[in-house]
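Internal ticket - ligand job 428, calcium ion:
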Amino acid sequence: MTGLNETHDPARKSWVDGANDPNSDFPIQNLPFGVFSLEGGPVHIGVAIGTRILDLTVLEEEGLIVPADHRVFDQGVLNPFMALPQNVWTRTRRQIADILDEANALSRAELNLVHRALVPMAAARMHLPIFVRSFTDFYASREHATNVGTMFRDPDNALMPNWLHIPIGYNGRATTVVVSDTDIHRPNGQLKGPNDAEPRFGPCQKLDIELELGAIVGTPNPLGQPVTAEEAYASIFGYVLLNDWSARDIQTWEYQPLGPFQSKAFATSISPWVVTREALEPFRKDAPERVKPLLPYLQETSPNNFDIEMVVELVPDGGKSSVISKTNYKYMYYSSALQMVHHASSGCAMETGDLLGSGTISGPTQDSFGSMLELSWNGRDPLKVDGGTRTFLEDGDTININGWCDGDYRIGFGNCAGKVLPAVNFRG
Ligand code: CA
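stdout (structure tokens):
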């Protein structure tokens, strides 16, 4: 179910600590889902609210929230819940909001239970929120595709002829999608500089980030059955911040003729809280104006982009944080819904737990580019960071990505972090 309802009412407040702080990512209008554990404890599913996590595994066990006739919050991943009908997502969101609303009176027994199910977020360890069924990565920012085409091909024909007609993508690795705060080893791979006679094997020298939004499919489409833009929009359960780590030197040598492979396969980080599509509903935006008309199957009849501010920070080992990029998801030429339409148009089955990377989100100005490749213009313009400069990432660097919608209240995604460790010693 799409559209606004009472869960989006800006007047609603929660009695939970920190939930009404205007700077909190997690007011009562957000209610993102995540997977967590406390020290030595089992892995549970929860919803972020203020400075706390509401433990849904406990509430389901005790019968306060019963989404289905079978347990769905006891599996340690969101997939069983995401596989339920969309009206169950809506009903559950309403129930959780009611439990946390300061205006709603709970019985003493219910209140005791809810207090027992509220745990401090600061004490929780977050886990990968979904079982990633498949990972497809797109290339949907016109600014990003133009920048990369300008650098590597031809400034006069920066966009490939198909780009304004097709949401371009490739099938990535689901196995190496990791949750925020997982350390990333610098990858080894085949490298060949423009003046080298032969390739060699060794650590990547141009380790990069890609600032992206990840869309998580909840409702599947059967094999052979395409979906409309409206169906695709509604099928997406929620969104996460996504850092698609990229090895530019490995990529340069391997990507012709079939596209990136090992240069992207080593790691993709996602933020731990899945912000639901329903929570983003008040922040929908129209796609940018079409340079060329899209084919009828790619026409959108409703705004499927979102107004999401995004910031990337780089923290050198032991140093201070510097903002290296500020952009907004609204610039994307192809929405996640359109990407799913195109993906399913051939009859490709999208499954519960499919992850669609938006592609690097670059804005129109150099400080809004979503990769170091573009920010440093392939090393030509080093970036100032604490204690020095960067063209690409060094060992020990940490990348933090944050994103939020700002309006009558703030819908935040939390942090998507990753630290670069040295390459493993492997002589291929
Ligand atoms: Ca990417």
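Auto-summary: The chain has a mean pLDDT of 97. The pocket of calcium ion is lined by residues 137, 210, 212, 244, 357, 359-360 (CB under 6 Å).
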